[in-house]
Structures are given as C-alpha cells and as structure tokens.
Amino acid sequence: MAIEASGPPVIDRVRAIVAEYRSERGALLPILHAIQAEFGCVDHEIVPLLAAELNISRADVHGVVSFYSDFRSEPGGRTDVRLCRAEACQAVGAEQLVAHAEQALGVKLGQTTADRSITLNQVFCLGNCALGPAAQVNGRVYGRVDPSRLDTVLATETAAS
Ligand code: FES
Q: Is the Cβ atom of 134 under 6 angstroms away from ligand 1?
C-alpha cells in the first residue's frame, strides 16, 4: 500500500480536494490530478472513497485511472523516464533503447528502481518523431537518444533531482 488511505488526514484531504472540483464538468480528472500531485499517486484504496464522494461506480473511477498513463497507483521515482515506442522511434532503435534502459536500471517498463530514484515508462509519441528515438525525462523531451546519450541524460537528471 502506497499511502494510508484509511487514516483521517488522507480522507479529509481527499474530501477537501473533491469539494474544490466537484462543481466542474468532468471533475474526476482534475480531482485525480490533484490527488496525484499531493500524494504522489492515486492509491487503489482511494478509489472507493472517490466513487462514494462523486456518486459514481468504483469501476468508473478505476477505468479513468487505468486509461490515462499519467496516473500511477504507486509513488513514482524521483526521476520520471518515458521512452517513446511509437512507430517512427521504433524504426530508429527505440526497442534497443528500451532494452538498454531495462538492463542498465534493473527494472522493466512501468517499474521503479529499488532506491526509488527512477521510474521507467513507455509512451507512444512525444511529438519529436523526426528526432527519434525520443525520450522524456522529468518533463523534458530529448531527441536522438541512443544508449550512451540516455546514460548521460540520466546521470544529469538524477543528480539534479
Ligand atoms: S514516434 Fe517517437 S516521438 Fe513520435
């Protein structure tokens, strides 16, 4: 369990966040973003509370959380790494880059390193197709990322985070 969703402070905060956005159309998305910003993830244990507060089904909440890759059910690492695996990047070595990253970090896509320094994820197009393979690290997009460039970017980004 990533956070203690049953404790009063978490419940109170979730209710306060819901109250802040409840009147907006499509309130669930901004609520989920706010929860992730505050707690680092959208813990599974928060789903029933959100469903009850918004008078929607747990399945509806869970469906939105799992549809959008931005939402995590566990806190991510301090450095967020997303490697593009869409077609244009695949044509210029994205899969080799993914294999290198998994091997170098000792994790699979979707996982966080044991020291919680890096979360490795995939993404499907960063809008940087002409400069593939593309990667996004802590929100910054990098192009022509071969394994050695990825190592260099990660060394710089992890030192800064
Ligand atoms: S296909 Fe990789 S950035 Fe578009």
A: yes
